Amino acid sequence: MWEHEVRNEQQPRDWILPAIGHLPLGEVGGPDLAAIIKKLRAVMAETTVTRYFSCTHAMFEAAVREKKIDDNPCKRTDFKRQSFAADTPDEGEHVYLTPAEYRRIWDNLHHAARPLADFMIHTGTRFSEATAASPDQVNTTKRQVMVDKAWKKEKDGSWRIGPPKSGKKRPVPVGTG
Q1: Does Ribonucleoprotein count among this protein's keywords (predicted)?
Q2: Contact by Cβ (8 Å): 44, 170
């Protein structure tokens, strides 16, 4: 089964650009990126850190292809991508929607479903986590949502609130716009 996720500008805007955006592209080094990884690991699940690192790696790879820089500074870190059970060939690969593809889906959603879709896209939460969220999980001062519960289906077919898939709570950053 294909797992669908959306890459958006939220990740670099909230975490990457504040740390290195002031530097000329060619001056970003492995230590700068290692510092970002360290900060991310202090507040996020390893899978989220891997996603953010992958996004950053892809941005620098694009700069290399466009001959803006000679090499990718992400390759000068000791970051090791976390392995996932879904990495096995029989599980398929991640598929990412483009902003245009997401917009086509959004345009066809019932107006009442659009806020939920936007919340999931901008936070990266799973459906079970987003629909279990409550206002007490939102911290507007820190600009984050604490994901600490999700819907779980019982063997008898009933539903209950339980821990998220990772088994532990995690803060998810939310942007300003």
Answers
A1: no
A2: yes
Q: What is the pLDDT of residue 172?
A: 86
My answer on whether 78 and 22 are in the same domain is yes
Cβ contacts of 167 within 8 Å, gap of 6 or more: none
Collect all residues with Cβ–Cβ distance below 8 Å to 44 and sequence separation of at least 6.
52, 170, 171, 172
Task: For residue 20, tell me if it sits in a domain.
Answer: yes
Three-class HEC string of 37-69: HHHHHHHCCHHHHHHHHHHHHHHHHHHHHCCCC
Tell me the per-residue pLDDT of 110-161, one tens digit each, with 9 for 90 and over: 999 999 988 888 888 889 999 999 999 988 898 888 999 999 988 888 899 9
> How many domains in the chain?
2
Task: Give the chain's radius of gyration (CA, Å).
Answer: 18
Residues 14 and 85 in one domain: yes
